Amino acid sequence: MKFSSTNSNIKDISNKACFVFAYKDKNSASVTTIDEANDAILSNLIKSKVISTDLGEITPVASVANINFSVVYVVGAGDSQKLNENTLVTLVNSISSVIKKKELASLHIAIDDLTIEGRTTHWITQKMTERLIFGFYKYDTTTSKKNPKPFLEELTFISEEAGLQLAIDTGSSIGHGVNVARELGNLPGNLCTPTYLAEQAIALDKAFVEISTTIIDEAELEKMGMGCFMSVARGSTQPGKFIIVEYKGDDAKAKPHVLVGKGITFDTGGISLKPGAGMDEMKYDMGGAASVMGTMTTIAELKPSLNVIGVIAAAENMPAGNATKPGDVVTSLSGKTVEISNTDAEGRLVLCDALTYVERFDPETVIDIATLTGAIVIGLGHHPTAVYANDDVLQNQILNAGKEIWDRGWPMPLWEDYREDLESPYADLCNISKTKGGGSITAATFLSHFSEKYNWAHLDIAGTAWKGKETGATGRPVGMLTQYLLDRS
Length: 489
What we know:
Blueprint: E1 2-6, E2 15-22, H1 29-37, H2 41-47, E3 58-62, E4 69-76, H3 85-102, E5 106-110, H4 121-135, E6 154-158, H5 165-186, H6 194-207, E7 211-216, H7 218-224, H8 227-233, E8 241-248, E9 257-267, H9 287-302, E10 307-317, E11 328-331, E12 337-340, H10 347-357, E13 365-370, H11 375-380, E14 385-389, H12 392-405, E15 409-411, E16 429-430, H13 439-448, E17 456-460, H14 468-471, H15 478-488
Parallel strand pairs: 1-6, 2-4, 2-5, 5-6, 9-10, 9-13, 12-16, 13-17, 14-15
Antiparallel strand pairs: 3-4, 7-8, 8-10, 11-12, 14-17
Helix pairs in contact: 3-4, 4-5, 5-9, 8-10, 9-15, 10-13, 12-15
């Protein structure tokens, strides 16, 4: 599948299909050009309601005279003043549906028809490329009937702007990384085990010379003193894996940016067993790990000048005779002891040891990503990712990256006041709060105890990485993380 651009006039291009855009309140550049060559053919069809300008409605117009396309697909773009990032996604989704339904192999898109306040043509091109690749993905790994492979071989953007290939390549790599994360998140827990995640990391190592992967098994983790991680992993017959993926794009002396992903490949809640209803969706509890794998894939493809390390703490949380019991006290890699009052608050346990482990990299920044709490879904819904940080500059950098790439976050507090909620008479701290409120905040506060030696942020993606069984994994926040890293390059 080849994406490219051309600055040729739409009248001088020959192809089977072209997508142009039509507004309710004015003619787009392409509509005007085609009208001038055909006695206002499109304007007349719009006036007569044959062509709809409603957002996302697409009308095919065949054999337009003096235009060398077999079919011109006119995409309704609504009111030009209301075109924004969200409506752009709606337009791309509609185009993707037509491409798949009509099995189009080659096409052009008149991207200069689209103008969004504060966004450049390069930005629109990158986002459209990303979302088109997003739209071509559909899960079929565990179904007997497989989806047909995309027929699309070549897509060309028509624009007067030069130098769009970088935007196209960036959008393509981000779209690919997002789909990597979606596939991992959608896989069932019997396939996507900690061992499977390790195998995917090793495959990435083999695919890119800039990537090196290290896998640490349970025996070594026990010797190292990862008591919190092992308190989760030991209840399962699937062995836990600690996965380290290093991308080296800068001088060896340059401090790395570290991404830490929660990789609970299935979460029963352990002895603090979850209700049966909806437990099947707990395969997505490795969404943080999936986003790390997706981001590392994107970074490996784009090859920016910086060092990045992805760390995945992968385990199953299962009830068993040797599983951790509520009230047990374990010793973390940091030496701090933790009372485990609820075994269903397991993500913070694997993460806290990972956050201690990454101190050895002398990191520039550390960002952990986790489907950590149901509380954040109550608080923020499914639109923004919750962004916590122990450094205001870092928090703003992540938020700005999310806004830039339109994978948005929302700032959350990390005040000292919440620390007293985690006090325990039997250990240095408890893994859940003594109070009922602020569940996502107290979870982040727990992690802050283990990230005091570097600039650190925590992304709670429980509301954004998964949108129920029908929609499945979203691949977020691969876009946000990639943009943040590219901004540092």
